[in-house]
Specification:
The protein has a single domain, classed as 4-Layer Sandwich (Metallo-beta-lactamase, Chain A), CATH 3.60.15.10. It contains seven helices and 13 strands. The protein has helices at residues 37-47, 64-67, 70-77, 88-91, 106-118, 194-201, 224-235; strands at 2-4, 7-11, 16-22, 25-29, 54-59, 81-84, 130-132, 145-148, 157-161, 166-170, 174-176, 183-186, 211-214. The strands form three sheets. It has a seven-stranded mixed β-sheet, with helices on one face. The protein has a four-stranded mixed β-sheet with strand order 8-9-10-13, with no helix packed on it. The longest helix is centred in the middle third of the chain and has 13 residues, at 106-118. Keywords: Hydrolase. This is MBL fold metallo-hydrolase. It holds the Pfam family Lactamase_B.
């Protein structure tokens, strides 16, 4: 789905990843669930672009619902995969976490689980990743800039792409809580360090872009400062 010129979303409000499309190639932000591979193919077909136009994959963090088909692209097409250094082991499947689920509503939780099952399959962890660091500008289409956002996970990052007026935040925040169904900018569930995640978001408030694009929820086009304000308000 096109959000704006050069900016596309794959998936839906339950699990999403994104494409930054340029004449020089495509950057993929996150890789969703394994079963969203067909959604990726369909979106590229609608653009008349082959998989080989993807020049790199930038993961906002190493959780299984964000690395979905990344290893397939890396193994089959040699596409490099970038991830925050502190999440590299998680992306390779060498470590895991079990944060508290917190409050949930049965309907919303079942919808999340059902979608994950339908689009799931066995997640292939990465065998090779390229660690990235705060402030780094990657030599990929759109010149994505890394913003460290530790909290949801130690190596969580935001990905700033000024050419499409967007920052991709992964689970730094959510606009659709997958466990409660709540909508609007709010803290994401399954977060390792909730207080740290809120502190990290304050760095985004000064990043003046229109789009704030989470891994779960409706794309937010009301600017970064307002998104961050609403997350803090929701956190109480």
């Amino acid at each position: 789905m096109q959000l704006a010129p050069g900016l596309h979303r794959i998936g839906n409000d339950i699990v999403a990843c994104y494409l930054v499309v340029t004449d020089d190639g495509i950057t993929l932000i996150d890789a969703g669930l394994p079963g969203q591979w067909k959604d990726l193919q369909a979106e590229l077909a609608s653009l008349g672009r082959p998989l080989s136009d993807i020049r790199g994959i930038v993961l906002t963090h190493g959780d299984s619902d964000h690395i979905g088909f990344a290893e397939r692209l890396r193994a089959e097409l040699g596409i490099p995969v970038f991830v925050g250094e502190a999440d590299a082991a998680r992306a390779r499947g060498e470590e895991s976490t079990s944060p508290a689920w917190g409050h949930l509503r049965i309907g919303a939780t079942l919808a999340f689980i059902a979608y994950a099952v339908r689009k799931g399959g066995r997640t292939r962890h990465l065998t090779e990743v390229i660690p990235v660091h705060d402030g780094e500008v990657l030599a990929l289409p759109g010149s994505p800039e890394v913003i460290a956002l530790p909290g949801h996970s130690p190596g969580s990052i935001g990905v700033l792409v000024r050419s499409v007026d967007a920052v991709f935040v992964g689970d730094g925040l959510t606009t659709r809580h997958v466990l409660t169904g709540g909508v609007g900018p709010a803290p994401a569930p399954f977060t390792d360090d909730p207080a740290g995640a809120l502190d990290s978001l304050d760095r985004l408030a000064a990043v003046d872009v229109r789009w704030v694009l989470p891994g779960h929820g409706t794309p937010w086009d009301g600017g970064t400062a307002e998104a961050v304000r609403r997350v803090h308000a929701a956190a109480g």
